[in-house]
Fold each of these.
Amino acid sequence: MEILNEFIEVAANPAAYAAKIKASGRPVIGYYCSYTPEEIIHAAGMHPMRLFGSKGDTGIADRHLQAYCCSLVRGALAESLSGGLDYLSGTVFPHTCDSIQRLSDIWRLNTSHGFFADVVLPVKLNTESARRYMADVLDKFRKELESYFHLTISDEDLNASIRTYNAIRGSLKEIWELKSHNPGLLSGSDLSSIVRASMVMDREALKDDLRSLLEELGEGKPSGEAKGKRLMLVGNVCDHPDVYTLIERSGGQVVWDDLCTGSRYFEGMMEEGSDPISSIADRLFERQVCPAKHKSPTARGEHITAKAREHGVQGVVFLYLKFCDPHSFDYPYLREYLERAGIPSMLLEIEDRLPPEGQLLTRIETFTHML
Ligand code: SF4
Ligand code: SF4
């Protein structure tokens, strides 16, 4: 499938894609968290770009960071300091985990990518005042972009952007659901590449590419084989397509996830044609929370259990970047919550580079054989 290969190429080398966008004269605005209001950046005529951090040597970042920072934060700073992000015209930091907040301070003082914004979203997402506060913060961000780049972001621009993003998210969800119903249709690593490339590609072209891909996939024959135990990945980000391949080689298949590089990116639609800032705020407010936000003590457990049941999941793999405080704090309660629901789970902690293949295979195989 030619179109699928395009997604795989972009996911494998996002910087090359971003450099082309920059060469076309469009500012590229980078971000590290799925709470970033991409729609506002897109409505300003700019290109929102998810950054995943360098996977090379991160020593250049060490003098700025404590040893216990996650590899995403370390790789992010290393990539910037070593010139790997010179195509950026700005960066946006939503207020989320402590590591990202501290990275934001260090970034502001030590890097020079032009526009910089801290988007201080509320942490508790369970009151009407928080919902209004969220909208006010987004409106402030819109004004900051307008002022820095000397432009106007109209409500019409925002509504057009909302339509584009609804189309993109709707298609991504359809693709994921096709895969869940017919796991043989796409490999896990291809699916992961599609979602990650969608955070990088020109969003107007992406909207059409995803529809074309869906049409091609819709013509695919059901594999009829339910090979591998049905697993759900739960965690922060997964920028390692090899993880999916290793799971498949170990007798499993990923049929749903709760990841920032997965369903947390595409779940939730925005109302079209009303006050656009409120619509964007409502989605961020109502979307399934990550552990850096709070809705209720059991919100994540309920959500993950419901999704596991909906997708016939036999086991959950918690996939965390090491030293990720918010997810590590959530883990004991989530594991117990799933246990009570009769859903077994295992924990895999990884870094920017994966542990030896044999070690991972043995651990996942032991889990899938037990299911
Ligand atoms: S886990 Fe939460 S804080 Fe971390 S990148 Fe995802 S949305 Fe942002
Ligand atoms: S992996 Fe965890 S600690 Fe690192 S940036 Fe994401 S939420 Fe924060």
Amino acid sequence: MTDKIWTTIDLIKWGEDYFVSKGISNAKLEVEWFLCHILNCQRIDLYVQFEEPLMKDKLFQFKEMVKRRIEGEPFQHILGKADFYGRDFIVNKHVLIPRPETEIIIELLKKRDGVKSILEIGTGSGCIATTISLENLATSIIATDISKDALNTAKENASQLSAENIDFKIHDFLNTDINSTFDVVVSNPPYIGSDEMDGLQKEVQNYDPKIALTDNGDGLSFYRRFAEFGHSLLNKNGFMLLEFGGVHQVKAITEIFESQQFNVKFHNDLQGDPRIVEMNLLTQEIFN
Ligand SMILES: C[S@@+](CC[C@H](N)C(=O)[O-])C[C@H]1O[C@@H](n2cnc3c(N)ncnc32)[C@H](O)[C@@H]1O
């Protein structure tokens, strides 16, 4: 690869074939993203300057990125950023890479009027709280996490994207109470059971922080806590939007929340699988 003069289009073709042969599904796009990062340009520019030869140092950078990728590192860690709701968020080993299905929480909030205060539990990169702020979906936002390193990344993201009305707080939701109430509580908590961890993709197992993935139990600890503690967290007519692991958790989650007098509604992701559970208090409908 070193002696030949490599143009942008040569690298796109070579990289795509190489990634496909290594089983990387989004092969062409990932190669394009790497080149955009190295050349500091947009994807369209790659095709405007497609016959441009790459300088030696840029070619070296490209090779290093390709090497890391085929060794199994997620492209978001190689680029140091991930997209969430159309914005770039810094990601690193301390935070979960934001997933597209989590954007449903934002879509659901957009359909609701009159929300003033929101609490987010387990903010990670800060992608949910920051997007809520930037999309003007609440006036006051508190975002918590048990991990100091995750919170630092979340603060950096909020500051880089100029999201101003978020109060980031270190907090252990499973073991410490919160003495305030909110119109809405949102969370994408760790919901993978400890016995499911071995079955995860290697990319997830090796690069997403374990504390972001599992509760080290049956994957339902956070929902039990939300069910038991939710009454004292919500304002009148308040509700919760929580992501969960999919169809295999629907029955257990329904039982957990219904046993605490919550009304439960499920929302599907783009694949048609249940992914977000919405809860409000049954008593509100009866007595208000
Ligand atoms: C699945 S990640 C979600 C990150 C981000 N909100 C997102 O959707 O991309 C779960 C987050 O919960 C945090 N977490 C784990 N245990 C916690 C606890 N007991 N209290 C508060 N946060 C916790 C993890 O550090 C992690 O950042």
